[in-house]
Design brief:
With about 350 residues, the protein is an alpha/beta fold. It is about 30% helix and about 15% strand.
Length: about 350
């Protein structure tokens, strides 16, 4: 008998100070472990982006956060690809030397990884990124010139026929801020994450193609007390390599469910078996959508966040576990069709329900 592929979704919300997944690439080991016990894993750039570090796995789908929300609500489907032609947008505010560093990183990805990058465009005006909220428990930001970003994306799509877009925006250098210092020492919130999400959301919402963002920043002096979880962000001049790798095989979006030709391998939300989420961060759109379906939800207590939105407070039925190691055990049993109760030393007897008319 042929079984449907066992499909999991791993979510670690952006910019909420997650103990695992709140830093560049530090949730990649979790994603790799989950992918090893599933047939398909769907996750998002916040989990997989590790600056110049990354991990390619054909089982793992790199899906931007807005698109993941649309997928979870059954509005969009996912279609796998062999490769995407990537367009590169550079913020006009990036200084010439820093721009050159990013162009060389893109060329290096073409030469060493064989990625298809279909030229770049510089925005017609600075994007004017501003950061907000890192000291309040969640980071967010604004873009003063969204029109410039969207015009650049439209030109790449129309003139170069790109299927995915990488954006490099100039972010403020604030090396003396308390938020940045806390982050480098392995505590607090990523001060860039919220604004990065806004940039990719804009492109995905308007053009329905994969997109992701890498910030452009001047290198900062080395810190001997740097946390290992923050170390990936301090390897060089650019965060672009992981974004290019992720977008190179990111699934395309099926945006009209009622008017498309189905292909083998297309994925829709009702095929998702399990979602894994930090226990204190259950208020996002995707998890609310999945909670209304048959999907199992595994809430991981050990991955603490600055949010305090637990599944029970929202009426969401979730399997509570302490760690991702425990979550892996749940996934293995579920994929094998084994009741988790059967793995515990005590097993209660069956109870009867009263028969009668319904």
């Amino acid at each position: 008998m042929i079984r449907s592929p066992y499909t999991a979704v791993l979510i670690v919300p952006t910019g909420v100070g997650a103990a695992i997944g709140g830093y560049a690439g530090d949730a990649i080991p979790v994603a790799r472990a989950i992918a090893a016990v599933c047939d398909r894993l769907i996750t998002h750039p916040n989990v997989l982006n590790g600056a110049q570090l990354y991990w390619r796995d054909p089982k793992i789908a790199y899906v931007e956060g807005y698109a993941l929300d649309k997928f979870a609500s059954s509005c969009w489907g996912l279609r796998g690809v062999r490769k995407n032609k990537i367009g590169l947008i550079l913020d006009r505010a990036i200084e010439p030397e820093l721009q050159l560093r990013h162009l060389q990183a893109a060329d290096a990805a073409r030469a060493t990884l064989g990625l298809d990058i279909g030229d770049f465009i510089v925005t017609d005006a600075p994007l004017e990124v501003e950061l907000r909220g890192a000291n309040s428990g969640a980071s967010w930001g604004t873009i003063g010139n969204t029109g410039s970003l969207l015009r650049a994306a439209e030109k790449l799509i129309q003139q170069k026929k790109v299927a995915a877009i990488a954006v490099v925006a100039r972010f403020p250098d604030d090396i003396d801020s308390d938020a940045l210092q806390d982050y480098r020492q392995g505590k607090g919130v990523d001060p860039l994450a919220g604004a990065e999400a806004v940039i990719s959301h804009l492109i995905v919402r308007n053009f329905q193609i994969p997109a992701a963002h890498a910030p452009a920043l001047q290198p900062i002096p080395p810190d001997p007390n740097l946390s290992p979880r923050a170390a990936a962000e301090e390897l060089g001049y650019t965060f672009l390599p992981c974004v290019l790798v992720g977008l190179s095989s990111a699934p395309q979006y099926i945006c009209d469910r009622h008017n498309y030709t189905a292909l083998s391998g297309d994925i829709w939300a009702e095929e998702v078996d399990t979602v894994i989420i930090p226990a204190s961060a259950c208020g996002g759109s995707a998890i609310l959508s999945f909670s209304s379906q048959k999907t199992k939800i595994i809430a991981v207590a050990e991955n603490t966040t600055q949010m305090q939105v637990f599944p029970e407070s929202l009426g969401i039925q979730a399997i509570r576990v302490n760690s991702y190691l425990e979550a892996l055990g749940i996934l293995v049993a579920d994929r094998a069709g084994i009741s988790v109760d059967a793995l515990r030393p005590s097993l209660s007897s069956l109870s009867s329900i009263i028969s009668g008319k319904f």
